[in-house]
Amino acid sequence: MNTQLLLIQVFNGLVNGAFYALLSLGLAVIFGMLRIVNFMHGALYMLGAFAAFALGQAFGLGFWPSLILAPIIVALLGMVLERTLLSRLYGLDPSYNLLLTFGLTLLTQDLVKQFMLSHYAVSSAPYTPPAALAGVVNLGFVVFPKYRLFVIGLSLVICLLTWFVIEKTRVGAIIRASTENPGVTRAFGIDVGKWVTGVFGVGVGLAGLAGVLAAPIYSVEPYMGAELIITTFAVVVIGGLGSILGSVVTGFAVGVLAAVGAALYPPIANTLVFILMALVLLVRPSGLFGLPEGAK
User: Fold this and answer.
1) Hey, which residues does 145 pair with through a beta bridge?
2) Apex CA 18: angle with CA 13 and CA 99, to 5°?
3) What is the pLDDT of residues 238-261, one digit of tens each?
């Protein structure tokens, strides 16, 4: 493989890694703060893409307004689901949350499929990126699509901003306190329920944002999150369950590793991330950035 082709694969890997990072970050926020295994994350990613598409079809909204509105819509839907369904399972075995969110995933995918067929007569639809991000950029050592560079940059900014807010600000301290020791937090007059719901909304909103960013690259279709979510769970495990920084770093790293590995030896493309996960768990069961169980 020549150098230019290798660099193209690295950048393609960074694009995939951007989606892994945003999705695994949302999962890490939800699991780390609420101990919820949210299998619906892939369906919410798809809903972000579908919401952007539907907003364009119904109201003529372009990419930029949809980039803001679609994640908000997904976040609000997630908050409603958390209050009406998931909150009833707190304190029970995590498998109940997993089964519920898995069922909601199947329901959501089929509803979107039927809606697209009945209203647009298609099961998959392209989504046009904004004109300002059309074309390519010559980086000197490689020519790469401008929109894909935007995806890498924006996702990195969002991931770092999320990490900073949760780990370094007063709001982040309240969120951590509300989930780690809710009794003491309530004693200080803080409404823990609202903070928990808000955290869940932020987590699923990140999935919705990833979906909007993915729509111009992968098109909009009901099952677009089905395979991606499996890899995303592997990324979360490799980085360390609940680790914000681990999700971001591992997401981008896995994206690059999978892209380069697929170019060097295509048969291993679909299994490389799971081989890596197995090796990491053998050496460090808590993940690369996770704390050992006794240290939590």
Assistant:
1) 136
2) 110
3) 998 778 888 899 999 999 998 888
| pLDDT per position as a tens digit, 170-191 | 888 887 776 666 667 777 777 7
Mapped onto helix, strand or coil, the DSSP state of residue 271 is coil
- What separation, in Å, do the N-terminal and C-terminal C-alpha atoms of the chain show? 45
Give CA–CA dist 206/22, Å, rounded.
6
Please write the tens of the pLDDT for every residue from 105-161.
Answer: 999 999 999 999 999 988 899 999 999 999 999 888 788 899 999 999 999 999 999
Written as six digits, the tokens of 78 are 């997630």
Q: Is 96 in contact with 89 (CB distance < 8 Å)?
A: yes
Spatial contact of 145 and 9, defined as CB atoms under 8 Å apart: no
Supply the angle between the helices 272-283 and 244-264 in degrees, to the nearest 10: 130
Hunting for tokens 């890694």 — which residue is that?
17
- Backbone dihedral region for residue 135 (phi beyond 0: left; psi -120 to 50: alpha; all else: beta): left
Contact 19, 254 (CB under 8 A): no
Number of H helices, E strands in the chain: 11, 2
Short-list 130, 125, 127, CA closest to 146 = 130
Domains of the chain (ranges, CATH numbers):
3-295 (1.10.3470)
Give CA separation, 133 vs 20, 55, 204, in Å. 22, 20, 26
Angle between helices 3-34 and 244-264 in degrees, nearest 10:
150
Nearest to 271 by CA among 262, 280, 260: 262
